[in-house]
Amino acid sequence: MTVDTRRIKRRRRLPAGFLGFSTEWPNAPLIAGRGGTDRNPVAEGLWANLRAAGSGGPTLRVGGSSAEQTWWNPGGAQRPAGIKFDIDEFSLGALKSFRDRNASALVLTLNLAHADPSTAVELARAAVRVLGPGGVRSYELGNEPDTYSSFTYYQDAQGRNVKQRGPGYSFGDYQREYGARAALLRSQVGALPLTGPSACCAEPFIKPFPSFLAQQRPYLGQRASLHEYFGAACPSIKPGTPGYATRRKLLGPDDMKRIIAGFRTAVSQGARAGKQVEVTETNSFACGGQPGVSDAFTSALWAAEYTMRTAGAGVVGANFHTFGRAYSPFDFRQVPGVGYVGNARPLYYGLLLFARATANRATLLLGTRARVRKGSNAVAFPTLDGRTLRVLVLAKSARRGGIVRIAVPRGARVGRISRLRARGLGARGGVTLAGQSVAPDSRTGFLTGTRRFFAVRRRGGAYRFSMPAAAGALLEVKIRR
């Protein structure tokens, strides 16, 4: 691979707090703790590793499909049909403490599916009181409304499945419901920074994005939200079908090009309406991810590329969903007599590599000229942080590495390289970044081991180094103005 960074004209600075994580309401305590002295030091350590790159604390978005089954219930009242989860003072207090300790912006999802609007109004009112008037960056109103007509809400007295909405539920129906509930929230709670449409899957709900922006603009904050997955690992999707979750799908160019093109379109539409676009829920494959792909080293290389391209497209945030499934970037549990313990999965290391490649809200240098040998499946992304030029290189082939040559303007004589490594694309453990890793069942979440760099000299206006198969590398050099 040959990368030329000398004639790059298009640039975009990384937004603060671009990286984030998303979780379900009932799983939020596994990240934020349960309030008072109950806190999760492992989660805070993992947040700190990312925050150390200088681009802001990772966002915490609480929502998912559970948001439509959640209500404010500090008094323990009997739950109505469709409601499964209670939120109380401890829940919101724990989120506040986590936010304040970790410089983490919050995104909360309010219930839109339930017919009783008080499920959204009362939770929003409590959130404003506990978290502060400006304590939540965005309130999503509803989660993936394009799935309402297929999502079973509850079973009636005769044991029949009741969907969140009927089979004819349309985008127009959603628009009317959103507007009515947004207006009620404003009258009962005040002007909240609402976001939406938080659609994920159905083209009739994604294509009318400009219509949503225009109609709901009076209620929206600075941001509009979308959800995005590369495909799905749902039981209904069988091997051999176009949407089936595979390693080739995750690391190949086709889906990446399609999704990033969609982001560029959405960002352009948002800009015309004066709104930024954030992907409030994302990951590799919906329905929990594909074991052996979403939880393997494959996901680390994918995540580093996906975040680079997503930020380059103008998206201002990407929150990776996690709730103990194959695609989770980390997992936690409580051990009697020990407390919280947790593990960083391969996906987390890919996000950490991205954070270091874009340190201090670096400027992304877009339109890089790169020549790649046929069949090598490699990509490179340069960034500029003051006088520090960084180039992220990803070798996504399982068998083919090679020599990387990076041409740099007025670079120092010696640069340094750190590497993202594992035993192969299918490795589920043993991942290291610059020689460091989070210990298994860690009690702190911090990286252990000595951080290692390799020197590389500039010759003939370029730095050359070997790149093994299935690996990542980050070149850092000082350049002269």
Could you characterize what this model shows?
The chain is α/β, with parallel strands linked by helices. It folds into two domains: 341 residues, Glycosidases (TIM Barrel); 117 residues, Sandwich (Immunoglobulin-like). The protein is built from eleven helices and 28 strands. The strands form six sheets. Strands 1, 2, 17, 18, 19, 20, 21, 22, 23, 26, 27 and 28 form a twelve-stranded mixed β-sheet that branches. Strands 11-8-7-4-3-14-13-12 form an eight-stranded parallel β-sheet. Strands 5-6 form a two-stranded parallel ribbon. β15 and β16 form a beta hairpin. The model has no long low-confidence stretch (mean pLDDT 93).
Question: Secondary-structure blueprint of this entry?
Answer:
Blueprint: E1 2-4, E2 10-13, E3 19-24, H1 28-32, H2 41-51, E4 59-63, E5 70-72, E6 85-87, H3 89-102, E7 106-110, H4 118-131, E8 138-141, E9 152-155, E10 161-163, H5 171-188, E11 194-195, H6 203-206, H7 209-216, E12 223-232, H8 247-251, H9 253-272, E13 276-286, H10 297-312, E14 318-321, E15 330-335, E16 339-344, H11 346-357, E17 363-366, E18 369-371, E19 378-385, E20 388-395, E21 402-407, E22 414-421, E23 432-433, E24 437-438, E25 447-448, E26 454-459, E27 462-467, E28 471-478
Parallel strand pairs: 1-21, 3-4, 3-14, 4-7, 5-6, 7-8, 8-11, 12-13, 13-14
Antiparallel strand pairs: 1-18, 2-17, 9-10, 15-16, 17-19, 19-20, 20-28, 21-27, 22-23, 22-26, 22-28, 24-25, 26-27
Helix pairs in contact: 3-4, 4-5, 10-11
